[in-house]
Amino acid sequence: MGMWVGRGRKARRCYGFDEIALVPGSVTINPNEVDVSWDLGKKKYKVPILAAAMDGVVDVKFAVEMSRLGGIAVLNLDGIQTRYDNPEEILKKIANASPEEATKLVQPLYVKPIKESLIVKRIKEIKKKKATAAVSTIPQNAERFGMIAQEAGADIFVVQSTVIGVRHISKEYKVVDLKKFIRSMKIPVILGNCVTYSIGLDLMHAGASAVLVGIGPGAACTTRGVLGIGVPQVTATSDVAAARDFYHKKTGRYVPVITDGGMDSGGDICKAFASGADAVMVGSAFARAKEAPGKGYHWGMATPHANLPRGTRIKVGTTGTLEEILLGPARLDDGSQNLVGALMTSMGNVGAIDIKEMQLTEIIIAPSIKTEGKIMQRAQGIGMGK
To answer: Does 3-385 carry CATH code 3.20.20.70?
Structure first.
């Protein structure tokens, strides 16, 4: 399998969201009657969407609101929420500053050490509101922060890096034993990020409660440009989903696959589920929410896999409330709002009663799907022409 790229060297053709389309089903279903819920550990969640662990996206208030709406927001334990007693003050300064001023403000933010007391405080603030407390850290901090978070009442612990693997070699620092770490935890542990069948399978055998898929597709991630590493999300999701199905057949344990990044519209999210995802994690969509602490900005070092030069900012714009973005009603026609409604409508049109059936949707290769017949939309700057 693959195409020749040179003498004796083949490369596999892979696909991203813009290159495929979903085929309508022979039977359609009332969108209001489809089930988009998913299971993680022993809990069921109404909305299969997670907000990414980025400082410009998730704080305590955002996590509480996301939980109220049925989803999960992941708090970054390596960011400013656990370094500063009053992160709102810092975030407000960054949001209101000019690009030049903001760069100077952001650069020194992550030098200050993380306070374990603030990890406990943030989790308890979320739990006090009876919300789901999901937190994330890099592998190097997993053993240190895992027990602290668990004892504080965290519901979900995420270990996330640019490229994760069960077998990591280093003489310079201690390597975390992921399998041993997961055995020591009593709450679900999500591992990421990966893009291949073999690594996905390794993470499942290590005991992961779910696996994050995606290297480099996020708006704030420069991995593909800087390191040249990554696999388009449709192919990556399909491959790891195949590992999930094999693992489930072999062991009887089902490990959800979470597509992480590269989705900026409801259509992309629908394609992720059709590719095999059980849930999705997005950042930019929620960075646009009025409730987002960054007020529409991503910036460097906000997440362990962002790989941005320290101080870099990406403006994504504020487009509506979190509820409008997640559940509607949509005020915009570009697919950036009512993400759950888009998923439900798509499922109805392809004839999928639940996420498992959505994963069986017929997919076609369609590189012209976003341009065919859209000349007037582009000219007027509406819908897909924006």
So the answer is: yes
